[in-house]
Amino acid sequence: MEELVLKSTIKVAQMTELSPSEQALINSAIEATNRSYAVYSNFHVGAAVLLKNGKTVIGCNQENVSFGAGICAERSAIFAAGAQYPDEPVEMIAIAARKPDGHLQETPISPCGICRQVMIEVETRYQQAIKLLLYGTKHVYVINGMKDLMPLSFTDF
């Protein structure tokens, strides 16, 4: 039997090590956590996408008593960007979360599987990787594309 080894690269950075545009995008994601509607989980997530045209679009999780009717922050931001700027590729996405006590997460959170697949679709659509900035107060994970989060995906560009 043959063994397949998959490798992912995730950089661990401090906010001060990031570029001003990366820091600004993270701050937009943090601000978006305040707009979240999370009355059931009390877990407030914000996302901000930076488009190729320089525009930033934010999103946040929106819960519903019928759990399947809610939406994650990442998809909220990506779909809003697609509706407003359909021809603009997503260059970068930042994600931040607040715990039930209102404090920001210390360690970064990772997108769910559905959001990961949506981001792969966006990468495929525009034929370019999306840089991910996963924020935590202790550090930020910097990931240069979805292949490092989902090396075996349905599509590939």
The pLDDT mean sits at 95
Percent of residues in β-strands: 15-25%
Low-confidence stretches: none
Written as H for each helix and E for each strand, in order along the chain, the element string is EHEEHEHEE
Biggest sheet architecture: 6 strands, mixed
Approximate helicity band: 25-40%
Quantity of strands, as a count: 6
Number of helices: 3
Shape: globular
Distance between the termini: 29 Å
Radius of gyration: 15 Å
In spatial order, strands of the major sheet run 1-6-5-4-2-3
| Structural class determined from secondary elements | alpha+beta
Features:
157 residues, single chain, 3 helices, alpha+beta, globular, six-stranded mixed sheet, 6 strands
What does this molecule look like?
The chain has 157 residues and is an alpha+beta fold. The chain has three helices and six strands, in the order E-H-E-E-H-E-H-E-E. It has helices at residues 20-33, 73-84, 113-126; strands at residues 11-13, 44-51, 56-60, 90-98, 131-135, 140-143. Strands 1-6-5-4-2-3 form a six-stranded mixed beta sheet. The mean pLDDT is 95.
Topology (SSEs and partners):
Blueprint: E1 11-13, H1 20-33, E2 44-51, E3 56-60, H2 73-84, E4 90-98, H3 113-126, E5 131-135, E6 140-143
Parallel strand pairs: 4-5
Antiparallel strand pairs: 1-6, 2-3, 2-4, 5-6
Quick recap:
By secondary structure, the chain is an alpha+beta fold.
